[in-house]
């Protein structure tokens, strides 16, 4: 059994002023699952609708009758909810607080009025370029205000944005552009992170030379670093030039609640990344409601989420949630260790940040540098801390709590996924006692359950696979262009429920402890990488015959990427080739997929039917050859012996 975790009780002064206090949680939770229509109907009133929804929830997870619809007769526009409705009361309030990579540059304050005008100008320009409701637009930008402007301008004209993280390589951009047949790309000359330049425009140019990308008619280029870039006329246009002279108001497109808002590509266990599709009404209700409730948002908060808008965290908790809520959100272009290890804390002091939301991998990296870079800053403005992306080890949690938060600030460990649109399991700081390492309890309307490998429900304290028994408004609606894949991936494994792909333990207090992915997805520093993607990249190399990739525990990244490679006959392993293959994967997918280990494998462990036994490869990668388990179904047991000896350096 697990040792009892220390409990950090709700601070009474926090509870006294919290949006959800102790007594509220159980009552509201019960209502949310017993009367979801009443509950979510009421919550939807937080948005401005052209037409208020009367049909709140229409969901069935039964395969013969499958549907997920929320607020289906409602009509609204996302950008109006993020901007226009604040103009009367918050026009001069800072919407975005932009902190450059270079701390010597002054921060930029973008008010709601200014943001509205910038969004309208770009939206008008998009229309002038022929963009219409339902068109797909790819956004490949650094963390600069234009990234937010671009997303909201798409939403204003009803175009579906697909943001591609700046760390992805041309091949990955091309795959994502081709999959949704994007008409237009918005990029910048270069990105800048920790003083290093990222050739964004050059990457787009390379991507657009690849097959399948003919749909792109226009590339808008933001001048950011001022670097010289190749402009291919008439395809490429300077962003500044197309928005110049456009009116600063723009008629928004009236969208149905179930019209798509965005696509975001994410890795799964098999094949290419899936285009996770989120729609307008339910997503906005859920993102804004969770943002306000989980972060206990108040009017004068300065809220900072360190994610990139290339990930769902940026979509829901930098852009849509905070802006619907009229909050001030900090947008940070840089990295935690530049120009020094105190950067996060210096930014917090400079802007008097009150709510800070980051990833366990960043916390672990900063913790390694000792307390001094933290303690030489004040951080008195902070009142709430959050984490997301991967399980946080209790040691890192305590350091975050004691050193960063001076033992004053509750931590919300928020579990969710690209697919879920918003936070599903999390503490509410005024209502739920904390346990380091546990995401604690389900948010309103969320019904987690644990099942064993056969789908049998596990009751009470137990460990199993995490499923969700019913829908919530922020749930993804489909895989873009492949509805079958959506149903196959999430609703077939355990019929009648949504399968998360995560393992989880529930303790005797009903607290949830996410244990990590149980499928072939590796969580590297909070980013999902499919083993199949890295394998396909490796086997594209002319000298590689076969590859198998698994995750292994990594001190900083949570999980690292471990690749086993079999060379074609006649090729022999060398240090040079190892480096070449690692660089190859970086070039094919992007730096985030860089293998941490690459082991030569004269053969791979397979069953007699030819299936690679990843369980065994994981144990070898973990350096736990004594836990290989049952190897009796192997076609050739000597293969394993070879790999183990090689791993142990024998
Ligand atoms: C996977 C989803 C949700 C935004 C960032 C990642 C893992 C996420 C936690 C957490 C333990 C977590 C899960 C999940 N994960 N948050 N608080 N505790 N694990 O989104 O790329 O879609 O990845 O991240 O394994 O399934 P994503």
UniProtKB/TrEMBL annotation:
Family annotation (Gene3D superfamilies): 3.30.300.30, N-terminal domain of ligase-like
Domain AMP-dependent synthetase/ligase, first and last residues per copy: 84-467
Keywords: Acetylation, ATP-binding, Ligase, Magnesium, Metal-binding, Nucleotide-binding
Superkingdom as given in the UniProt entry: Bacteria
PROSITE patterns named in the record: AMP_BINDING
An example Gene Ontology CC term for this record: cytosol
Top EC class for this record: ligase
Keyword Metal-binding: yes
Sites where the protein binds Mg(2+): 539, 541, 544
Acetyl-coenzyme A synthetase N-terminal domain ranges (all copies): 25-82
A Gene Ontology biological process term: acetyl-CoA biosynthetic process from acetate
The protein, known as: Acetyl-coenzyme A synthetase
Source species of the chain: Lysobacter silvisoli
Organism ancestry: Bacteria, Pseudomonadati, Pseudomonadota, Gammaproteobacteria, Lysobacterales
């Amino acid at each position: 059994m697990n040792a009892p975790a220390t409990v950090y009780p709700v601070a009474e002064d926090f509870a006294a002023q919290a949006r959800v206090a102790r007594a509220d949680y159980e009552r509201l939770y019960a209502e949310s699952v017993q009367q979801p229509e009443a509950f979510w109907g009421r919550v939807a009133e937080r948005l401005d609708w052209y037409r208020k929804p009367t049909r709140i929830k229409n969901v069935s997870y039964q395969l013969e009758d499958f549907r997920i619809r929320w607020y289906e007769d409602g009509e609204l526009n996302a950008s109006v909810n993020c901007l226009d409705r604040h103009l009367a009361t918050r026009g001069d309030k800072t919407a975005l607080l932009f902190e450059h990579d270079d701390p010597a540059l002054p921060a930029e304050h973008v008010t709601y009025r200014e943001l509205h005008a910038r969004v309208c100008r770009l939206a008008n320009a998009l229309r002038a370029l022929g963009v219409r409701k339902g068109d797909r637009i790819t956004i490949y930008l650094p963390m600069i205000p234009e990234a937010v402007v671009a997303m909201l301008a798409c939403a204003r004209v009803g175009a579906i944005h697909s943001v591609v993280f700046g760390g992805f390589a041309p091949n990955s951009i091309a795959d994502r552009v081709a999959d949704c047949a994007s008409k237009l790309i918005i990029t910048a000359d270069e990105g800048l992170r920790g003083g290093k330049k990222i050739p964004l425009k050059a990457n787009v140019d390379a991507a657009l030379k690849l097959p399948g990308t003919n749909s792109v008619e226009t590339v808008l280029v933001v001048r950011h670093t001022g670097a010289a870039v190749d402009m291919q006329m008439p395809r490429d246009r300077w962003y500044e030039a197309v928005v110049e002279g456009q009116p600063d108001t723009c008629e928004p497109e009236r969208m149905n609640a179930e019209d798509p808002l965005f696509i975001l590509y994410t890795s799964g266990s098999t094949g290419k990344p899936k285009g996770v599709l989120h729609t307008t009404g339910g997503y906005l209700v859920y993102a804004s409601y969770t943002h306000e409730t989980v972060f206990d948002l108040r009017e004068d908060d300065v809220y900072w989420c360190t994610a990139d808008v290339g990930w769902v965290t940026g979509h829901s908790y930098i852009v849509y949630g905070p802006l619907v809520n009229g909050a001030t959100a900090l947008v940070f272009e840089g990295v935690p260790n530049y120009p020094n290890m105190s950067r996060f804390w210096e930014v917090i002091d400079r802007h008097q940040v009150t709510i800070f939301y980051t990833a366990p991998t960043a916390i672990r990296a900063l913790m390694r540098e000792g307390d001094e870079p933290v303690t030489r800053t004040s951080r008195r403005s902070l009142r709430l801390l959050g984490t997301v992306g991967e399980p946080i080890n209790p040691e890192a949690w305590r350091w975050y709590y004691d050193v960063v938060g001076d033992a004053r600030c509750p931590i919300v460990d928020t579990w969710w996924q690209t697919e879920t649109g918003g936070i599903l399991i999390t503490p509410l700081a005024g209502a739920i006692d904390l346990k380091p390492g546990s995401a604690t309890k389900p948010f309103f309307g969320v019904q987690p359950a644990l099942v064993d490998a056969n789908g049998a429900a596990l009751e009470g304290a137990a460990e199993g696979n995490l499923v969700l028994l019913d829908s919530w408004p922020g749930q993804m609606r489909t895989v873009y262009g492949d509805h079958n894949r959506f149903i196959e991936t999430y609703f077939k494994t355990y019929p009648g429920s949504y399968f998360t792909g995560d393992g989880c333990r529930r303790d005797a207090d009903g607290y949830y402890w996410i244990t990590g992915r149980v499928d072939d997805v590796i969580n590297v520093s909070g980013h999902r990488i499919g083993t199949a993607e890295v394998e396909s990249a490796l086997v594209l190399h002319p000298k590689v015959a076969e590859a198998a990739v698994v995750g292994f525990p990594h001190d900083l990244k949570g999980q690292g990427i471990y690749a086993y490679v079999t060379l074609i006959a006649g090729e022999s392993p060398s240090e040079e080739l190892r480096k070449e293959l690692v660089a190859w994967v970086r070039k094919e997918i992007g730096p985030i997929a860089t293998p941490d280990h690459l082991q030569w494998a004269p053969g791979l462990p397979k069953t007699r039917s030819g299936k690679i036994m990843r369980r065994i490869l994981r144990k070898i990668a973990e350096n736990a050859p004594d836990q290989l388990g049952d190897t009796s179904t192997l076609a050739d047991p000597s293969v394993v012996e070879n790999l183990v000896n090689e791993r142990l350096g024998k």
